[in-house]
Specification:
With about 775 residues, this protein is α+β, with helices and mostly antiparallel strands. A hairpin with a 5-residue loop joins strand 9 and strand 10. The chain has 25 helices and 22 strands. The protein starts with a helix and ends with a helix.
């Protein structure tokens, strides 16, 4: 910067604030007044003197053109004020005008000068910033600038170029110094590149190595332009020198990696390839080439559809098009013809690949020969088929053996049933036949006849209980559940239970669930408790003890198999007898299973208990061990019931109905005669039918029918339930009673039917009560 421009560097870039500008203007004026007073006398200090012109310049340069005008105006005001009392000549007036014009020119020129200086300063600052950024860019990118004089060989190197060569800045910057730094193996290449550039006028990019003074080898890239003079002669060259060592090393690593990849790919025993986005191959390995039996270049452009089995071609082409369109991983399997003429199963897996910017660039694929696997699959399928045939044959043999076993078990069960049930029924029939025989011998002995009738009826009721046990076990008997208090029911049964165990065994009752209500069939409950107590009596023998307890038990989920979580009434029969072995315990609920001798028991006791408990929504659990006695727990769901329901008596006084015209449908002639006699004894008129067809015929005839009593199991395809439905359609509102001792498959329909079910055997009293309840709504409601 010149000495004249140097002071102007202190000119403010912006106009100073008002107080500062005013101070500059006043200071400039006072300085001018002071100078005038010193040199032209104080009497002329305030006159219009050229001394004020520097003040105009200073105010304009440092405070801006506006304040130059202010200073000029102030000088004119002072000068004119000092001459106001004196007469002015024309010449003096002209001097004032010239003074004003000169001052204005001075202010304008100073203002323009200020603008020029400021713009020059801004341009210089911008240039400095640009040079600084350029230097930063050169340093960051390791780009060195050079300028070479072709004629002299001398030139200019930037500091970065010195650093790229490993030389100290400021040293020789000619072609000879450069060639001395180039690696010996590349010196001739660089020299020939320079000669070619001078001859052709074009400098090609040149990559070469340099050896720094410390021995480090770096790669450089030179780019430049050749400049000509007016005659077309090459006189100068300029360009850049870039350190590309990292890029070159990365390239070498990539090339080395590519070489390793190719070596690895060529050694792999599978087919490998890389395809472009358009589907054309850009790399295949040696196994790929060998499979086709072509050259490498031919393999890149090979059309595979000529090698695919015709049975697989259409499928594979569709799958390939769909897979490539999805640009996702896809798999193909087909048979391909190898160069040696053999057909091989190939499974190919294609994985999409991406370019440097994340764009789809094609697929990387691998093809695996799975011919051996396919052959093994076929062999395995044949083996599986053969094995399936043998398994089917084995299963058939097993089923046949199981059928034979089941048949044998049925025969064994029938044998047990024959022995046990026959023993019990023979005892019952002995009592019945003996009583009837004695009554027939002495029909006039009323007292003896009454005793014999009571004995015969008792034996018959025992037979009824035995059949109920059979039906309860098979779940073929419809229960009549009622709301009952279990403790009250046990207290009522206590005398009968004590007679059952006899005097040789002690029986203790400990009911601790007062008021607990269950919805059960009272008769079946009594039979279940009786079976448990009798079994306990047989297990303890003479001098033993049996204890009957009740309590409230809350079961959690999964605590007892086959029973849901909830609150139960637990009835436990404990004994101190011989207990049960595990093999006995495992079969204790099986039909007709008993540990007693043939003829001593039917094996239906615990079976009836189990069947009753399951039908009542509960279950049975046994805690026993050999020599430690047994505790059989009967679980019945506890329910909430109205007090009147729980307190209701089991039986009510019989109610007589008026004489009715009854249609009796019964296929068993002896049963029909007995029931007809009962009905006539009750005062009713009976018409009998031996089947559904005859009953329908009678229903279709004119004449009143007040009640139909029909058996469930009837000859033919139609049951008593079917007959009841037909009768309801033919005679709407006809009262109907269903009756059976064994409902078989019709159990569910009988239970769900809207007509009452009377179980056999039944007495005339129960028959009368059932008819009365059906015919009189008030009795039914009660």
């Amino acid at each position: 910067m010149s000495p004249v421009a140097l002071p102007l560097r202190f000119i403010p870039r912006r106009s100073p604030p008002f107080p500062v500008a005013l101070a500059i203007s006043l200071c400039a004026m006072m300085a001018a007044v002071g100078i005038c007073g010193m040199f032209v006398g104080w009497e002329n200090a305030f006159s219009l003197s050229p001394t004020y012109f520097p003040a105009f310049i200073v105010a304009t340069l440092f405070a801006g053109q506006r304040w130059g005008w202010v200073t000029l105006a102030a000088a004119l005001a002072i000068g004119l004020g000092s001459r106001a009392a004196m007469p002015q000549q024309f010449a003096e007036q002209a001097d004032i005008v010239l003074y004003a014009i000169s001052g204005a020119v001075t202010v304008v020129v100073a203002g323009r000068l200020r603008e020029i200086v400021l713009r020059l300063d801004e341009a210089q600052a911008a240039l400095d910033r640009s040079e600084a950024r350029l230097q930063l860019a050169q340093d960051a990118g390791e780009v060195g600038l050079w300028d070479w004089d072709v004629l002299t060989g001398e030139g200019y190197w930037s500091p970065t170029l010195y650093r790229n060569l490993g030389l100290a800045p400021g040293g020789d910057s000619n072609i000879r110094t450069l060639l001395e730094s180039v690696h010996p193996d590349d010196q001739e290449w660089v020299r020939q590149s320079n000669i070619s550039a001078i001859r052709t006028g074009k400098m090609a990019p040149t990559e070469y190595r340099v050896v720094r003074p410390d021995g480090e080898v770096r790669w450089l890239l030179s780019r430049g332009e050749m400049l000509q003079n007016g005659t077309g002669r090459i006189v100068r060259a300029t360009g850049v020198n870039i350190d590309i060592t990292e890029r070159r090393m990365a390239f070498e690593k990539v090339r080395e990696s590519d070489a390793r990849f190719r070596a690895l790919a060529d050694s792999a025993p599978v087919l490998l390839w890389v395809s472009r986005a358009d589907g054309r191959r850009e790399f295949v390995n040696q196994a790929y080439v060998d499979f086709l039996g072509t050259s490498y270049d031919e393999a890149l452009a090979f059309e595979w559809r000529h090698r695919i089995d015709k049975d697989d071609l259409d499928r594979v082409l569709k799958e390939q098009v769909a897979g490539e369109a999805s640009r996702a991983l896809f798999t193909l399997e087909a048979r391909y013809l190898r160069a040696d003429g053999s057909w091989r199963w190939i499974r190919s897996v294609s994985q999409p690949r991406s370019g440097p910017n994340g764009e789809f660039a094609g697929f990387v694929g691998i093809g695996i020969d799975i011919s051996d696997t396919k052959k093994a699959e076929l062999d395995l399928m044949r083996i599986n088929d053969l094995l399936a045939e043998r398994v089917q044959a084995a299963l058939a043999e097993r089923d046949e053996a199981q059928a034979r076993l089941h048949h044998a078990q049925k025969l064994e069960a029938v044998g047990q049933l024959t022995g046990g049930v026959a023993h019990d029924f023979n005892n019952l029939l002995t009592v019945v036949i003996g009583a009837l025989d004695l009554m027939q011998r002495r029909p006039d002995d009323a007292e003896r006849r009454s005793k014999m009738l009571e004995a015969a009826l008792g034996a018959a009721r025992r037979g009824e209980r035995l059949t109920h046990q059979l039906l309860a076990f098979s779940r073929r008997q419809a229960l009549k559940p009622e709301f009952v208090r279990i403790d009250d029911l046990l207290k009522e049964s206590e005398p009968l239970l004590r007679r059952a165990v006899g005097e040789a065994v002690s029986l203790n009752l400990a009911p601790t669930a007062p008021g607990a209500v269950a919805l059960v069939d009272p008769g079946q409950f009594d039979a279940a408790i009786m079976n448990l107590v009798v079994n306990a009596r047989d297990a303890v023998g003479k001098g033993g003890a049996v204890r009957l307890e009740t309590s409230i038990s809350v079961l959690s989920e999964g605590q007892t198999p086959d029973m849901p979580a909830g609150e139960y009434i637990q009835v436990v029969v404990r004994d101190d007898g011989v207990g049960m072995a595990p093999d006995v315990l495992a079969r204790v609920f099986e039909p007709f299973f008993t540990t007693k001798e043939v003829g001593k028991g039917t094996g239906l006791g615990l079976s009836q208990v189990y069947g009753f408990a399951r039908q009542s929504g509960g279950g049975v659990a046994i805690d026993t061990a050999p020599g430690q006695g047994a505790a059989v727990s009967l679980y019945l769901p506890r329910v909430e019931a109205p007090a009147e329901a729980a307190d209701a008596p089991v039986e009510q006084a019989p109610v007589k109905a008026s004489a009715l015209r009854v249609l009796l449908v019964e296929d068993d002639i002896e049963v029909a005669i007995m029931v007809a006699a009962m009905l006539e004894e009750l005062g009713h008129h009976v018409t009998r039918a031996d089947g559904v067809d005859r009953a329908v015929e009678l229903l279709g005839q004119p004449g009143p029918i007040d009640l139909m009593l029909t058996d469930l199991v009837m000859p033919g395809e139609q049951s008593g339930v079917d007959l009841a439905r037909i009768a309801s359609e033919m005679r709407p509102g006809l009262p109907i009673i269903l009756s059976s001792g064994y409902t078989g498959e019709t159990l569910s329909t009988a239970v769900d039917a809207p007509w009452p079910l009377l179980r056999k055997p039944y007495s005339a009293e129960l028959l009368a009560r059932t008819i009365a309840r059906l015919m009189d709504p008030e009795i039914q409601a009660a």
